[in-house]
Amino acid sequence: MNTTPNLTKNQSLVLDVLTRSEAPLSAYTILDKLRDSGFRAPLQVYRALDKLIEMGIAHRLESLNSFVACAHANESCCGHAHGHGHHGTVAFAICESCGQVNEFHDHAIDDRLAGWAKERKFKPSKTTIEIRGLCEACMH
Amino acid sequence: MNTTPNLTKNQSLVLDVLTRSEAPLSAYTILDKLRDSGFRAPLQVYRALDKLIEMGIAHRLESLNSFVACAHANESCCGHAHGHGHHGTVAFAICESCGQVNEFHDHAIDDRLAGWAKERKFKPSKTTIEIRGLCEACMH
DNA sequence: GTTCGTTGTGTTATGCTATAACGTGTGGCA
DNA sequence: TGCCACACGTTATAGCATAACACAACGAAC
């Protein structure tokens, strides 16, 4: 069981499923994996996911309509730890062959996007960066 | 009518709708706008969109499940024009209040992502960058 | 010009993704 | 005790996307 404090039962169950998975999972796949634990409806999954994402310990992959556990949940690399290793914008490299996801973040990109936003007086709330392609293992 | 050459009738109709719209449109919204032109089924829209995106004259916004006409269809700023002003990865700033979308691209970010990919021998096929937030006009 | 492959089209049916709306239960706190 | 905030459970519905099949239009090759 994942022992992150202050998680409700449903949130823990969903996070566990995500943490154990090699690849991102859709909400409905999560639901299926949790039927034995008493889950019956999509909303139970979506509500847990919303909270996990809000806490920064799970992420949504927009280009896949799927979800992953945060790979950096215990780091706080950017100087301002918000309880769960909050860092700047996170980027994902997603292999379209094996489905594996690599999470990373990059100050230079953050700065660049922040600069663009500042120039235009645009106030960012959430930024999505996803690279789809082939990982080394899947290339010929 | 949009006069981009080599578009089929359906593709032109869809592109026209996108071009005239201030904000991104979902496939079903496009469908509704084209009922009078004979469209009856989602697939007619999706097929046209697929081609337009492939040609680089429309984009999909992953975080909205919606589509926009390319704002730079006639530019070729990065030195290699692929017929339709093909440039590097495109980024979008999306106002969550008014819905307006600002399309831009940034060499530094491109380079940075390319560098990351090269280091890991990851071969990118498509990159998504979307900033959601509030535009200047919508801030208080 | 006929044959054939490719591409676009039209249609029905279906599957996947996400949320609305309502009600219940529980724990903190004045 | 009464209230409030929040998690949870359930049903129904809305919104997004594609499978599978059939037909038409076009160009290239012969």
Whole-number radius of gyration of chain A?
A: 16 Å
Which pair of protein chains has the largest interface, and what are the residue counts?
A-B, 33 and 33 residues
What's the helix count of chain A? 4
Structural class of chain A: alpha+beta
**What is the domain total for the residues of chain A?**
1
- Subunit organisation of the chains: homodimer
Uncertain ranges of chain A:
79-85
Let me know the largest β-sheet of chain A: 3 strands, mixed
In the CATH hierarchy, the third-tier topology of chain A is known as Arc Repressor Mutant, subunit A
CATH top level label of chain A: Mainly Alpha
Strands of the largest sheet of chain A, in order across it?
Answer: 4-3-5
Order of helices and strands of chain A: HHHEEEEHE
CATH architecture heading of chain A: Orthogonal Bundle
Helix percent band of chain A: 25-40%
Average the pLDDT over all residues of chain A and give the rounded result.
89
Beginning-to-end CA distance, first to last residue of chain A: 38 Å
What is the tally of beta strands of chain A? 5
CATH superfamily grouping of chain A: Winged helix-like DNA-binding domain superfamily/Winged helix DNA-binding domain
Strand content of chain A: 15-25%
